[in-house]
Amino acid sequence: MADVSAPTHRYQCIYCSTPCDALYRVYGVSATQTIKLSRCTHCQRDVDPYCERELMLVILDCLLFREEAYRHFLFHRYRDLQLNTRESKILLLLASSCLRAYVISVAEHGDLEENVARWLIYFLQQTILSGIVYFLQSQCIFGCILTLAKGSNEFSPLLESCGEGATNELFTQIDLSLLLPTACHVATIFVQIWEDSDTVRLMGSCLILAYQWFALNTIVRGRLGVSSSCSKTVMVTIVFVLSLLVRDVALELIRLTWSEVPSTICAGVELKIGNLWLPFLASKELKIPQLCLS
């Protein structure tokens, strides 16, 4: 990782969220340099031991729902990977949209070999739709969080952490919390080689939703302090579910303008019991719709 001793960014302990000036300090010169991790003044532990670990180990801990790994990545590591640049955001959005569109296209039209032209057109439509809904969802979450910060004393520290142009940093973190978990669609695609079923796609969608919620909750807890009450986690959950509903309502409106058969508005998850679908909101027709994947 790059030298972060300069106080150009705000760093924090991944265990207790105490702010600090640097993640590590460099002693000595040239080949005799020694790197020593900074120690937290509150919990007396290393501020961020993940600085010394490879990226793959950090990703594995993120897959295991390690909150410290999420804080390391969403508050520190993403800068070294240059994921906060406009080009990186566009590439991430495109990659996430393509993965989601591919899974939906396979669910709707099967493999590419059956009808190439029709499949590619549908794939391009779903890629555009996915990019739009991800953008709408991130905007909804960002707006709700700032509204909570202005209207609630419990969330008011968010305004301090977002002061002096740091709102772009918060928005970037929210984008990453939504886009990066969609990489799990790669696992869904590999599993579909052996079993191409709605169950596989539903399980992949649920896993991505879990990672997105956990990442969003980690961001808010990291800015408010890890000792934040359970009510804050409940509010984050409500904001996340609301963003899913806004996303899917917008998706339905766009599909209607494209003269497609309306599918069930499902907040990312649909429950199938026998031949009936029980959505969160009633659909116009009782028929098996396409999966509304995250």
Give a written overview of the molecule.
It is found in: Endoplasmic reticulum membrane. Pfam families: Arv1. Keywords: Endoplasmic reticulum, Lipid metabolism, Lipid transport, Membrane, Sphingolipid metabolism, Transmembrane, Transmembrane helix, Transport. Mean pLDDT is 77; it is low at 1-8 and 260-292. Helices cover 56% and strands 6% of the residues. The radius of gyration is 21 Å and the shape is globular. It has a domain at 82-258. The two termini are 32 Å apart. It contains 9 helices and 6 strands, in the order E-E-E-E-H-H-H-H-H-H-H-H-H-E-E. The strands form 3 sheets. Strands 1-2 form a two-stranded antiparallel ribbon. Strands 3-4 form a two-stranded antiparallel sheet. It has helices spanning 55-63, 67-80, 86-109, 116-151, 157-161, 167-179, 185-192, 198-224, 230-257, and strands spanning 11-12, 19-20, 24-27, 34-37, 271-273, 276-278. It is mainly α. A hairpin with a 2-residue loop joins strand 5 (271-273) and strand 6 (276-278).
Q: Number of helical runs?
A: 9
Global structural class: mainly alpha
Shape: globular
How much of the residues is beta strand, in percent? 5-15%
Termini, distance in Å?
32 Å
Q: List low-pLDDT spans.
A: 1-8, 260-292
Can you give the mean pLDDT? 77
Radius of gyration of CA atoms, rounded to a whole number: 21 Å
Protein name: Protein ARV
Family: Belongs to the ARV1 family.
GO biological process, one term: sterol metabolic process
Keywords: Endoplasmic reticulum, Lipid metabolism, Lipid transport, Membrane, Sphingolipid metabolism, Transmembrane, Transmembrane helix, Transport
